[in-house]
Amino acid sequence: MNPESVEGQGSLLRFINWLGQITIKIVSELGAIAIFFVYGFTLIFSLPFQFRKIVQQIYFIGVKSFLIISLIGLFTGMVLGLQGYYSLVKFGSEGMLGAAVALSLIRELGPVLTALMIIGRAGSSIAAEIGIMRISEQIDALDTMDINPMRYLVSPRIAASIISFPLLTALFDVIGILGGYLTGVLLLGVNSGIFFNRIYDSVVAKDITGGFIKSLVFALLVSTICCYQGYFTHMRPGGYGAKGVSLATTSAVVISCVCVLVVDYVLTSFLL
Amino acid sequence: MAQPFIEFKDVSKRFGDLQVLDKVNLRIYSGEITAIIGKSGVGKSVLLKHIIGLIKPDSGQILINGKPLSEFTKTEWRNFKRSLSYMFQSNALFDSLTVFENIALPLKERTRLPNKVIREKVEYRIHQFELQEVQDRYPSQISGGMQKRVALARALVTEPTMILFDEPTTGLDPLRKNAVLNMIAHYQHEIGFTGVMVSHDIPDVFFISNRVAIIENKKIPFQGTPLELEQTDNEVVWQFIHGQEVLQDQLTGLDPRQKVEQLIKELTDKVAKGREPFSVGLFTIDDLDEIKKGVGYIASQRVFQCLAMTLKSYMSSNEYAARIGTGEILAVFPGSGASRVKKLIEDLRRDCSRQELMDPSKYKKVCIDFALKAGVVEVNTRMDMATILAKARENQQVIAKMECKGASNRK
Question: What is the ipTM of this complex?
Answer without folding.
Answer: 0.77
